[in-house]
Amino acid sequence: MHQALYRKWRPRTFEEVYGQDHITSILKYEVANSKFSHAYLFCGSRGTGKTTCAKILAKAVNCLSPVNGNPCGKCQACLSIEAGTETDILEMDAASNNGVDNIRDIRDEVVYSPSNLKYRVYIIDEVHMLSTSAFNALLKTLEEPPEHVVFILATTELHKLPATIISRCQRFDFRRIATNVLTEHLLRIAKAENIEIDESAATLLANHAQGGMRDAISLLDLCAGSRQKIDNELVYSTVGSSGRDNMLAVVKAIAEKDYDSLFGAVDEVVASSRDIAVFWQDLISIYRDLLVVKTSKNAVEYLDLTDSEIASLSDVAKMFTIERMSYHCGMLEEAYLSMQKANAVKRIVAEMTLVRMCDERLSSTPEAMLSRISALESREFLASSVTAVTTQSADAVVTSNDKPKRTPKKPKFDDDDEDFRSDAPTTMKKAEKVSALDANDKNVRVLRPFKSRAEVLDRMIGADPMSASFFKNAKWYTDESGRMIVKFNSTFDIDNMRVFGGEEIFIKVVSQVTGKALSKKDLICEANTESKKDELIDKILEAAED
Q: 255: which of 175, 319, 411, 473 fits an S-S bond (Cβ 3.0–4.6 Å)?
């Protein structure tokens, strides 16, 4: 029967463990000098060597003739452990043995001496799956085990372990393995196994493994099953990825609002029976690279890409503002989470999200607004630059009798919109009340939250709970003149508040708390119009974008 490559190429000494030198060097020193700990905690992402190092350490501490901290692999202890027949090495999966009874069995066994080896070693994998009672049962034994016992705990989710467990162990953090290290090892395995593979294809496999050696070797084993030379196309078809060039084409289509290309890209993924979630992950990865190129001066240091690939990313990144890319990243993440739901139709989620990414006007989120404002600012900057250059050129050729005329483009608004009709005399007053569009306008109010709101509410509740209930749901501000502005949810609330005499009580309590007399004319009660503000801002943006 075929043996999986990741099992066949599992390291048997610390020297064969790649990408974890900061850990293996310490473990070798401890074994060589017989200064190893009674309890270890190996934590890190999957496929980075936690269980492998645990098994090597179990052999090393029991090896009859260790070589520079490594197990010799030839003595009786090493051979029996390697064959899996040694009863003094107990490997337990906490995912399926997570009860307190399983830990009690261990606690009862540790008092007995090993039958064949120098040390009895307990390897508990996925230790974060233990129940609370199981952790409590393990505490005392883990802190002061017999001299002939070594515990090795492994986990991918360190945050789920109690601090009392972590503090009793010597902790080692396993890092994700660098892409170049993975690539070199894959090429080494391929050569030994007579597998033909391009170096670029090995790099692609390493990138898909995301720092996990086991995942990288498993992908190599999967691609090698085709019994043909492994190139980029074979990797893309086997893994279900769309390829970097195809993903850049999708991003360009988003920038150019090419809906046909976007629907075609999704249709191609579905027609080829690939997982849309994988396609979506590739798109998220491309946006990550674009953000790095857009924001970093040393993008080469953070991207495992060739110079030509980085140049292609730079060309596409110029088509977006940072605000728009940030808005897109948020939508991509939201859509990916939606795809994980049980009844989600991934194709519909993907297509609708891509359409919304093309046109920010289809979304009312603050991120979408910010993206639209950023685009307007860029457009105004370019327009002002062109106008300045044109004016300078015209000054050089226009005579004194020439009178060039300029007709400014008027914004378009709906005829039935009262706020923007030319015959509406209150247009500027409404605009000033609704939003501070001009920060230098002296008529614009500057509102600050009222600081003593909690104390005033407490006293009002004690004096008149009914009146206090209306003010509790309102928003309180002070302006530059020292007046109180209270914004209620509706005019109905204002009328009811006044019926119950709420104004007089409010003025009295505020005067007591602040120490300043508040008159009735200094209290302004308004209905909250934030939704109207949002509609007005949206209309202004649409007019400017036209």
A: 319
